[in-house]
């Protein structure tokens, strides 16, 4: 199943949940996702790894990180000055963690490209919820970043004075981020709590003080957890290791896993086919976008044809109009994104 198919299935699930307002446990949520996407399933070995990892990610992780600091070194809580707003401290902490994720993802993806372990790192974003009664300020704010493989997603979400880490099946991303899947159904994998003293700001995991200096080790463990779940392979020696060497698939992450290249469809193979000299064809992304552009235009033509046949003012006419609006908006965003990509690519090529 492709990534866009997963997102589509997740969107259908989110709408169904919003309309029915039903509550369920995680097993029921996964079952409903399966109904929306028949190919979706969570392997039993991944479930077992999830349970084993979650048992390690509370006080034990906090104690391990705390112990990384030399015994004769001061373990300060005041590695950063406390701001007037706790949420600002939370966003700063997530930004630092996401910076580590970006570096890890860059190195890891050199080996994982083309496999189901390829990690997409989404930069942090602010999500605000407002209502008419309190129009002048958001009634709720969240700050989130996300790591996603083909099958699993690790979501870091800052709210008020804490940072919560969640691990959810990839099919459930949209439902979770839209609050159609509750924290009861997907309890936090780990919670990092902000705490203050007269000296400054500190962070605790499982009641243990965690110096900010140990964030690179924490990032490696969380990144590794996502890989372990996605590969379905874990060795007990991987947990809480010092990672003396960089993360390497099959060495200190997903030990025993042999990466399998994902199958390439005939259409994609034609787009990325090498040139006569054996080198990758240039502008493969441009060609792929042209294919998507043509498909969207065909969809719009069909929708406008339906609009011309629908009687004005009817439910069918309104539905088609909304479909056209959504498709055109999607089309515009793709074009805008490609413009940014083109500018950045050509700018970098000019520097070479």
Broad shape: globular
Question: What's the end-to-end separation, in Å?
Answer: 37 Å
Rg from Cα: 23 Å
Order of helices and strands: HHHHHEEEEHEEEHHHH
As laid out across the biggest beta sheet, the strand order is: 1-2-3-4-5-6-7
Q: What is the helix fraction of residues, given as a range? A: 40-55%
What oligomeric state do the depicted chains represent? single chain
Description:
The chain is an alpha+beta fold. It has two domains: 3-238, no CATH class; 266-351. It is built from ten helices and seven strands. The chain has helices spanning 3-20, 26-36, 44-56, 59-67, 86-112, 173-177, 215-231, 266-271, 284-309, 315-351, and strands at residues 120-129, 140-148, 152-159, 162-169, 190-196, 201-205, 208-209. A seven-stranded antiparallel beta sheet has the order 1-2-3-4-5-6-7. α3 (44-56) packs antiparallel against α7 and α5 crosses α7. The chain is globular and about 70 Å long. The protein starts with a helix and ends with a helix.
Descriptive labels:
10 helices, single chain, 352 residues, seven-stranded antiparallel β-sheet, globular
